[in-house]
Design goal:
The protein is an alpha/beta fold and 255 residues long. The protein contains eight helices and eight strands, in the order H-H-H-E-H-E-H-E-E-H-E-H-H-E-E-E.
């Protein structure tokens, strides 16, 4: 663990870029905007993954804030920022749980679909298109970013930017693929070739290991509370597991 002042040094040195967006990545996902809500289309794996992530997120939030796991509006009064929200697959269930949700995505096409779908579902979600640092948003109780950090220009800058939007007693939730042989075979090769993920979505070299991400979070002044693997088996499909070879999800807080 680093000294708490290290993150202050990062901010004072103006290390955080105003442009964490990788435009090529944003264009790739923007071109797929119309398919986000098609559970059988090119975003099929995201629809399979979403309940798994939500299960972890709900457990982490219940423990962090002492929420009632039985409550259908457990997040009432909590402000939530979802960065790289796509068309709102995570924003919508968080809003249904009572959260005051803001979603930001680099692709305007995704935000347009997200707004339309939320309106049809009668959900009030504040969607923003573009660079997070240019949205003039304040701090949030909960910041989430699922399968995004492997697509940005500089993961460290991105983490510091996420921290800037987190209340001192808030919680950060991240998920990302691990850089392993298994993830290359299953995510980059098999899933993309089988149409579960759009071709060209992943660059295996940009995947981040749990050890690397833990170190970056620590350097930014954040400590990992909990980490779980997201594994795959023919019997159980995608599920939470101790095995982090494929994908993993974590919760963190300010030091």
């Amino acid at each position: 663990m680093v000294k708490a002042s290290k993150s202050d040094d990062i901010l004072q040195d103006n290390r955080v870029s105003n442009d964490t967006i990788n435009q090529e990545e944003a264009d790739h996902f923007g071109a797929l905007a119309a398919q986000w809500w098609d559970a059988g289309g090119s975003s099929a794996m995201l629809h399979d993954l979403n309940p798994v992530r939500l299960s972890y997120i709900r457990r982490a939030l219940d423990e962090h804030y002492g929420l009632d796991y039985r409550s259908r509006k457990a997040l009432f009064g909590k402000s939530i920022l979802d960065v790289g929200c796509g068309a709102g697959l995570l924003c919508e269930p968080l809003a249904r749980l009572g959260g005051d949700v803001t979603g930001v995505d680099a692709a305007p096409e995704n935000i347009e679909i997200a707004q339309s779908h939320a309106y049809a579902m009668e959900l009030n979600i504040d969607y923003r298109a573009g660079e997070l640092t240019q949205q003039n948003l304040g701090k949030f109780d909960i910041v989430t970013s699922m399968e995004v950090i492997e697509h940005v220009n500089d993961p460290m800058d991105f983490i510091v930017t996420l921290k800037q939007h987190l209340h001192d007693d808030g919680i950060l939730l991240l998920s990302t693929p691990n850089r392993t042989t298994q993830s290359k075979l299953l995510l980059v090769e098999a899933a993309e070739r089988l149409g579960k993920i759009p071709r060209g979505t992943h660059n295996h070299d940009k995947f981040i290991t749990p050890k690397e991400l833990t170190a970056m979070l620590s350097d930014a002044g954040l400590s990992v509370i909990d980490m779980s693997g997201i594994a795959f088996s023919l019997l159980d499909g995608l599920h939470l597991n101790d095995d982090m070879q494929l994908n993993y999800i974590l919760s963190a807080q300010k030091i």
